[in-house]
Amino acid sequence: MIRGTFQTTGLILLWLCGSCGTSLDSDTPAAWPIQGEWTGDLILVSVDTMRADRLSLYGGDRDTDGLATQFGTPAWLASQGTTFEQAWAPIGKTLPALGTFWTGLDPLEHGGVSNKHAVLAPSRMRTYAEQGALGLAMVANRSLGPASGLAQGFAGYAMRWGAQEKEIASEMTRRTRDAISGKKRLVLWAHFMAPHQPYDPPEAEAARYQVGGTPGSNALLASIHRDPASLSMNEKHRLRALYDAEIHMTSTRVAELLAGLDANYRAAGRGGLLENARVVFFSDHGEELADHHGYFMHAKSLYSGVIRVPLILAGPGIPSSARESQSLGLGDILPLVIHGTAPKGGVQCASWQGQFFAARDDRWTLIHNPTLDRNGPLEPPEDVAFFYPAVALFDREADHAELQDVAAQYPEVTRRLLRELRLWWAGLNPASPGIPEGVDPALLAELGYSDSFENQMTEPWLPEQWNP
Predict the structure, then answer these.
(1) Spatial distance between the Cα atoms of 68 and 77, rounded to a whole number of angstroms
(2) What's the rounded mean pLDDT across residues 295-316?
């Protein structure tokens, strides 16, 4: 159980739109590749902290996503399905982002505004369970425990963190055997954690990329953030290689899981995995990897290295070996996969607790700090600033890492995105943050996790408030 309140009317309306489907806006440029209702099995595989452009599918220079010829790897899955080039998270934090995936609501609306809070809004899994689906989940991040609000609707919801993560594939294979043989509609969710810092892959994985030395511990990464000038190019490449090795390890675990499920379907005489299930492979958020301010981690950042996420869909009715360039958010994925509901597309917005903002279209990124606070988000290490300019514009076609502010050169684009951001903000229905059962609200307040963000949030500027 979760304690808390939220604004019922607005959230229910948004929930109905997200789960029941909406018509495609007339100005949407093209049809989406998935249409119609899906009533078969659904396999959801999410990976914590997987930055899209570290996968070869998204331009990475290592085989972190495995071989396309090996069953079940992300590379293989892409060959069997559709890779989405512009999928976006609402924030660089696990529970808020996955709360959006499961509810279709922004973190400011669903209650899980931080990893210390809980999702209050109805999960789509609850609806699937009411429709007869058997939900089984196994997650490796302790922020996703049953008190997080994401266990809603699941008949089985288990934590497998730390050394137990490597058991997810075999245990999920065993637990789904009866459901698959009995032709029970299945919704399975596996969440892997390995790419999350610290960067400390097994020796065999590190050797794959010829990398060694000191692991990328939390203490080391924090020390670099405190003194960015201390980071040499060689050390930056070394730490990124350690991170890549953990992604590759996770890709092998994903392959093991999907191969086990495929074997279960075949043993039941039902054909293979992709004849029976739609598979969704995605991440909650990416990783900064020292693109800005010597910061390797994710929670402080709204830049694309963190907010852009990998997304691959495969299964019946989904085009194979295809790529989709239209943008969508995490909250758009389940309606698209289950109902064929086309995302509205357009500008994707993100925020850190309603204080720092980003808005993106297919080419441009707007970063906005209406508070003018020079410290940035209050995330570990909290003694180091992560400065955001009041207004900055980046051209992702020319500036992949979003380092060169071109707002003054493109004032019309800047003002357009400020306008879109303000419209998005006006459409939100903020909720009270959810308090997990058994947690004293006073303790959260002492830790800086307030039970109300209304007095902390800041409206994005109107376009005319910006004067370059």
Answers:
(1) 8
(2) 99
Strands (E), 361-464: 364-368, 391-395, 435-436
Instruction: Tell me the average pLDDT across 354-376.
Output: 97
Q: Give the integer Cα–Cα distance in Å for 365 and 353.
A: 19
Burial class (CB in 10 A: 0-12, 13-18, 19+), 17: middle
Q: Dig out the tokens for 322 from the structure.
A: 């295809």
Label residue 283 by pLDDT band (50, 70, 90).
very high
Q: DSSP state, 439?
A: -
Task: Report the DSSP pairing between strands 435-436 and 2-3.
Answer: antiparallel
Q: Which of 238, 248, 355, 352 has its CA nearest to residue 290?
A: 238
| Mean pLDDT score of the chain | 91
Residues 6+ apart with CB under 8 A from 248: 62, 63, 64, 65, 66, 201, 205, 208, 209
Residue 388 Cα to chain centre, angstroms: 22
Q: Which of 187, 191, 242 is nearest to 213 (CA)?
A: 242
Which residues, 6 or more positions from 370, have their beta carbon under 8 angstroms from its beta carbon?
357, 390, 458, 459, 460, 461
- Taking a C-beta distance cutoff of 8 angstroms, is the pair 109, 431 a contact? yes
Mean pLDDT, range 37-46, rounded to an integer: 98
Q: What is the pLDDT of residues 209-234, one digit of tens each?
A: 999 999 999 999 999 999 999 999 99
- Give pTM, 2 decimals: 0.91
CATH number of 351-465: 3.30.1120.10
Distance of alpha carbon 149 from alpha carbon 147, whole angstroms: 5
Which strands make up the sheet holding 41-47, listed edge to edge?
Answer: 156-159, 134-139, 186-192, 41-47, 277-283, 311-314, 81-84, 322-324
**The token pair that represents 209 in the structure block:** 């990329």
**Chain centroid offset of residue 415 CA:** 28
Stated as kind and residue range, the H or E segment containing 367 is strand 364-368
Determine the Cα–Cα distance for residues 334 and 349; give it in Å rounded to an integer.
19
Q: Which strand (E) or helix (H) includes residue 401? A: none
Nearest CA among 320, 298, 336 for reference residue 143:
298
Residue in 202, 281, 286, 293 with CA at minimum distance from that of residue 248:
202
Q: Choose between 96 and 25: higher pLDDT.
A: 96
Say which CATH class 34-345 falls into: alpha beta
d(CA 276, CA 10): 36
Per-residue confidence at 456, pLDDT binned at 50, 70, 90? confident
Residue type, 393: L
Q: The tokens of 444 are what?
A: 């959260």
Enumerate the domain spans of the chain.
Answer: 34-345, 351-465
One-letter amino acid at 341 equals: T
Q: Which residues contact 433 (CB under 8 A, 6 or more apart)?
A: 4, 111, 112, 113, 114, 117, 449, 450, 451, 452, 453
